[in-house]
Amino acid sequence: MVTKVDAIKRVLKEFGGVATLDQIYENIEKYYPSAKASKYWKAGIRGVVNREIGKEKNFKRIGLGIYALKEYEEEPKPTVKDKKRMHSYIEGICLEIGKFKNFDVYTPDKNALFKDKIKLIDIATINCVPNFTYREIVDIVKRIDVIWFNKKGLQFPQRVFEIVDAIGTLSEALNRIIQLLPFNTEFVVVGPEKYREKFINKIEKEPYLRFKERFDYKDYNLVLKLYESSYKYNKVEKEFFKRSI
Question: Distance between terminal CA atoms of the chain?
Answer without folding.
Answer: 59
